[in-house]
Amino acid sequence: MATTLNQNSVSVSILSEIKNAGVLSPGALDRFEKTYAKALTDGTGADQAKNHWHSQRTLAASASESLDLAGGLTNLVGDVLIFTKIKYIFLFAAAANTNDVVIGNAAANAWVGPFGAAAHTLAIKPGGHLSLEAPDGNGYAVTAGTGDILKVLNGGAGTGVTYDIILVGTV
Asked: Which of 2, 17, 62, 87 has the fewest C-beta atoms lying within 10 Å of its C-beta?
């Protein structure tokens, strides 16, 4: 039986407000509020995906792992996922971490995705998160065997790191 994407939505809300207590313009207010929301349907085109994978993971001090996006991940309903496109990637670094969680720069078969080049990395600070979206029909391409490894690295020594990762894409 084929698995279909039953429901997927993403929303981000930002509210920021500053107030000037100065003499020249007392009480001046700058307020910014924005909510972004998107829902995906089942499919392979724009604003569509077919499956997802999520996990909470822990890496020992100075350790790394290679996540194989095309055949190395199994979701909770038992599907071995062979992603061809990633539409969303979310990574949340635990606030209790001492070290950064670093993604990218796999030694071989690196997934370039949003990085621009295979050797590029992004560091997610303790308590921080990364949220990237590619909702168009192309997504972030995954090429089995040559461009499908997402390296995740504990950015320091001495302590482990914990992170949550969510991948939504086309299989």
From this structure: 2
CA distance 48 to 169: 8
| Identity of residue 10 | V
> Tell me: the pLDDT tens digits for 81-129?
999 999 999 999 999 999 999 999 999 999 999 999 999 999 999 999 9
d(CA 49, CA 87): 7
Residue percentage of the chain with pLDDT more than 70: 95
Question: Distance (Å, rounded) from C-alpha 22 to C-alpha 38?
Answer: 40
Amino acid at 93: A
CA distances from 123 to 28, 135, 137 (A): 36, 23, 27
pTM of the model: 0.89
> Read out DSSP for the chain?
-------EEEEEEEEEEEE--SSSSTT-EEEEEEEEEEEEEESSSTTEESEEEEEEEEE-TT-EEEEETEEEEE-TTSPEEE-SEEEEEEEEE-TT-SSPEEEE--SSSB--TTSSSTT-EEEE-TT-EEEEE--SSS-EE-BTTTB-EEEEEE-SSSS-EEEEEEEEEE-
Residue ranges of the chain with per-residue pLDDT less than 50:
1
Residue 34 pairs in a beta bridge with: 14
